[in-house]
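Practice record 12: protein with magnesium ion.
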Amino acid sequence: MGGVCSGYTVPKKILLTGPKGSGKTTLLYTWCVGGKDAKVPRTESFNVEMVHGPRGGQLLLVWDVTDPIRRRQFFHGTEAIVYMIDSRYLSDLDDVRDDLHVLLEDRDLKHLPVLLVLGKKDLTDMFSLDELGKKLGLLEAMQSRQYDWVSVRKDDNRTYQTALYKLCELIFS
Ligand SMILES: Nc1nc2c(ncn2[C@@H]2O[C@H](COP(=O)(O)OP(=O)(O)OP(=O)(O)O)[C@@H](O)[C@H]2O)c(=O)[nH]1
Ligand SMILES: [Mg+2]
């Protein structure tokens, strides 16, 4: 539940991660500006931004970090994971699968809700979610945690708002 202390809402800490160039910072800054064209800075190390969810009192502090080694320092206190994949590489997911499993097995991240985001859907054809689930071993990986998925494309802001809505459903419901 969202913590409220003396009238202030305590934000939920979110880890936004996934392979390099998958579209994480575009997602984060689109959430921040609420649907207008987001200016996306190049990510040197990490980005961190406060994001308002669709309902009052839904406040998220989102840490956007790619590097699998450096991101470890951001795990403590995390309350949900957003894992982003570039949809163009759905046919070659071995590295993604390994990275995702290492992340989900970390003791600081066990049992946390996960939103899987498939980015750049404007650049790819349809795919089967069953097939994706098998390739990523989602059935085992998502056992004992809440999980959802969504696809986004930067030419359609509604897809980013749907992603934010689903994330808040996972965290606040
Ligand atoms: N066509 C298309 N391009 C996108 C989309 N989302 C992001 N991009 C582009 O993909 C590139 C990488 O996007 P970023 O948001 O910087 O990706 P990132 O995951 O933050 O990258 P790193 O910080 O390097 O890990 C940029 O040129 C974006 O404009 C999308 O939905 N469709
Ligand atoms: Mg980035």
